[in-house]
Specification:
CATH superfamily of the largest domain: Response regulator
Number of domains: 3
Number of strands: 12
Strand content: 15-25%
Largest sheet: 5 strands, parallel
Number of helices: 11
CATH class of the largest domain: Alpha Beta
Order of helices and strands: EHEHEHEHEHEEHHHEEEHEEHH
Structural class: alpha/beta
């Protein structure tokens, strides 16, 4: 059984209501309906639940199609509203359509009702899908516009089609300056293969994994970036362009260079450090040391040449007693 069609009927005649319901049933629809015939009862029905469609008689003793349509608009509904009447003339029908009714059917020609209902239900569904898609695009556009990465869209020939605020901050160009121009303006002359390689991968539908490269700002200065490139496809899956997301890594790269420089300097300093090890031939009498070339050197000379040690000179207590006994205190 098909899903019930939640149908609100604005009609004062029970007989005409059943004629409408049976006509829809004969067309294969399954109406779950409620009949109202006053402004208050219609307002209560709209507040009590959601409806798939409203079918309204044009002329009722205490109510009517124009008033029902006005209440429909007050509730900001986007479901089909179809007027059905046995007395509505062409002028009144045109006026209802201008006021927002989706269709009208004469009661003496109810065979038109079921096709009209199906057509308007499909149109309402398409409007909902379109609104959802537009909302999703707007949400995505907001994310792209306000994210921290410079996102640039371009066609397969390199023409820029979109340029977010982060791209303006990173490269210095406004969107108005860049949209319609070639992305090659950002590529340094010494990297001629950057764009061909990117677009070759995009054309094959491949995503370029994060890579590091260089781009040129508006003021001519280079900026190091981490770049991700993804293909842009149409509804059929055909690749029609590429989208790149770039992040400024200049600071990180500079810190890396500083770390490498520091490591290199430390390595060089350590290579210059001289250490003493192994057996040292030393004279038992004068205490000179024989160097690698066979010459005898003073201890301090040899140590200074083979290490970073420096010497200060003084006398130990024993030498003071031996060399200058006159300065010894008598107890």
């Amino acid at each position: 059984m098909s899903k019930p069609l939640k149908l609100l009927i604005v009609e004062d005649s029970e007989d005409d209501t059943w004629l409408i319901v049976r006509q829809l049933q004969r067309g294969g629809l399954n109406p779950d309906f409620q009949r109202v015939e006053t402004l208050g009862s219609m307002r209560e029905a709209l507040a009590s639940q959601s409806w798939d469609i409203i079918i309204s008689d044009y002329s009722l003793p205490r109510f009517g199609g124009p008033a029902a349509l006005a209440l429909y608009h007050q509730h900001n509904l986007d479901i089909p509203f179809i007027a059905v009447s046995g007395v509505m003339g062409e002028e009144a029908a045109v006026e209802m359509m201008k006021s927002g009714a989706h269709d009208y059917v004469m009661k003496n020609n109810l065979t038109r009702l079921e096709p009209a209902v199906r057509r308007e239900l499909l149109a309402a569904q398409e409007r909902r899908v379109r609104r959802q898609a537009e909302a999703a695009r707007a949400h995505l556009a907001a994310i792209v516009e306000f994210c921290d990465e410079a996102i640039v869209g371009k066609t397969l020939d390199g023409t820029i089609t979109s340029w977010n605020a982060a791209a303006e901050r990173l490269y210095g160009y406004t969107a108005a300056e860049m949209i319609g121009r070639s992305v090659s303006i950002l590529v340094p002359p010494y990297r001629p293969r950057d764009l061909p390689e990117i677009f070759e991968m995009a054309t094959r539908g491949e995503r370029l994994e994060p890579s590091e490269t260089v781009r040129i700002r508006k003021d001519g200065t280079p900026v190091e970036v981490a770049l991700i490139v993804s293909p842009i496809k149409d509804a059929t899956g055909k690749v029609i362009g590429a989208s790149s997301a770039a992040r400024d890594i200049s600071r990180r790269k500079e810190e890396e260079r500083e770390r490498l420089k520091l490591i290199q300097e430390l390595t060089e300093a350590l290579s210059r450090v001289k250490t003493l090890s192994g057996l040292l031939p030393i004279c038992a009498s004068c205490k000179k040391i024989r160097n690698d070339k066979g010459y005898w050197q003073q201890v301090e000379t040899y140590v200074k040449e083979h290490s970073d040690a420096e010497f200060t000179h003084g006398l130990c207590p024993d030498c003071v007693k031996t060399l200058y006994p006159e300065y010894q205190l008598k107890v």
